[in-house]
């Protein structure tokens, strides 16, 4: 893979097909990102999106070196201080960390460009986060998770009904797809580096609904918080974006996208365990269910979905890790 002279320490295992190594040389640190599967996305597009963010004065890893033929890039090392780790330390002010995350999100959402160049000199246009993509993501819930608990003779009927509900909810989204969407804007992808907050894992960025990244941050399956805390961060976003949002439209889209995202997450985590033998994510599924329940219980738009889920998934199933 790489020259034997380099001493590399594997540092991270995530939900993608990438491997990460920390390189130390002459007191300088960097990260080697290695990928053979989905190589274009994980190396070429990852750096292209990072370069777009950097041009817009947002902290993202700089490219030091690329060797695309040998399946790796070398990028800036932001260290280990994720916002998630900082939140876990009792002495840190959780509200303040989330407010800083909202400030970063605001900067990202001001980006106007949707085109950038790869390190191969080719143009890369960030795709649109359209209803078809959102539908296929939410459908992972039935493709991977539902079939574990619903009898084979009933699964096709369930799939028909859940797909109908997903399409109905997508038809109720009201904001334009005109905002830079990181697509995984949560506390494990936000890093404190040089007294600033930076962002990693940008390769899946799309142009979509402004509520999506907000839902990713507030209804984050990795970090549990109560409704009052979630509401306070949501309200901070509103205050910091006065005159930019129709509040009724934003809340409508926020709740729909939160529910569809967490359905997707349940499907992805089930797939990671079954297909890729990455079982550590299964423990997060019960909280993903709780986030879905939080958003659907008081909104009539979710009545059909709630009824379908309540019939097919008991409390015992939802709490199973």
Give the gist of this structure.
The chain contains 12 helices and 11 strands. The chain is an alpha+beta fold and 321 residues long.
Which word captures the global form? globular
Query: What percent of residues adopt helix (DSSP H or I)?
Result: 40-55%
Q: Report the uncertain regions.
A: none
User: Kindly state the mean pLDDT as a whole number?
Assistant: 94
Contiguous helical run count: 12
Indicate the CATH class: Alpha Beta
Quaternary structure type: single chain
Rg on CA atoms, Å:
20 Å
Q: What is the CATH superfamily?
A: Aminoglycoside phosphotransferase (APH), C-terminal lobe
* Structural classification: alpha+beta
Q: Percent of residues in beta strands?
A: 15-25%
Main β-sheet, in a few words? 5 strands, antiparallel
Number of domains: 1
In the CATH hierarchy, what is the architecture at level 2? Alpha-Beta Complex
Physical arrangement of strands within the biggest beta sheet: 1-2-3-5-4
The succession of helices and strands, N to C, reads: EEEHEEHHEEHHHEEEEHHHHHH
Number of strands: 11
């Amino acid at each position: 893979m790489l020259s034997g002279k380099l001493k590399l320490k594997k540092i991270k295992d995530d939900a993608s097909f990438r491997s990460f190594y920390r390189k130390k040389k002459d007191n300088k640190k960097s990260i080697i990102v290695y990928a053979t599967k989905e190589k274009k996305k994980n190396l070429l597009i990852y750096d292209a999106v990072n370069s777009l963010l950097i041009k817009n004065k947002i902290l993202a890893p700089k490219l030091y070196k690329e060797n695309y033929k040998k399946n790796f890039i070398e990028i800036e090392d932001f260290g280990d201080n994720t916002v998630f780790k900082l939140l876990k330390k009792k002495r840190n002010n959780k509200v303040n960390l989330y407010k800083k995350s909202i400030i970063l999100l605001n900067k990202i959402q001001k980006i106007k460009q949707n085109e950038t160049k790869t390190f191969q000199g080719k143009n890369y246009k960030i795709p649109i986060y359209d209803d078809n993509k959102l539908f296929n993501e939410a459908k992972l819930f039935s493709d991977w998770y539902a079939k574990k608990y619903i009898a084979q003779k009933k699964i096709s009927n369930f799939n028909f009904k859940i797909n109908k509900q997903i399409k109905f909810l997508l038809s109720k989204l009201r904001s334009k797809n005109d905002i830079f969407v990181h697509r995984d804007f949560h506390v494990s992808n936000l890093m404190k580096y040089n007294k600033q907050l930076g962002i990693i894992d940008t390769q899946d960025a799309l142009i979509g609904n402004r509520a999506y990244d907000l839902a990713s941050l507030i209804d984050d399956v990795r970090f549990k918080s109560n409704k009052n805390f979630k509401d306070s961060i949501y309200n901070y976003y509103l205050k910091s974006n006065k005159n930019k949002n129709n509040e009724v439209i934003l809340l409508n889209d926020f709740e729909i996208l939160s529910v569809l995202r967490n359905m997707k997450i349940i499907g992805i985590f089930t797939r990671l365990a079954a297909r890729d033998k990455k079982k550590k994510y299964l423990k997060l599924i019960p909280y993903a269910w709780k986030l879905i329940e939080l958003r659907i219980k008081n909104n009539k738009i979710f009545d059909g979905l709630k009824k379908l889920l309540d019939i097919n998934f008991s409390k015992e199933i939802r709490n199973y890790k």
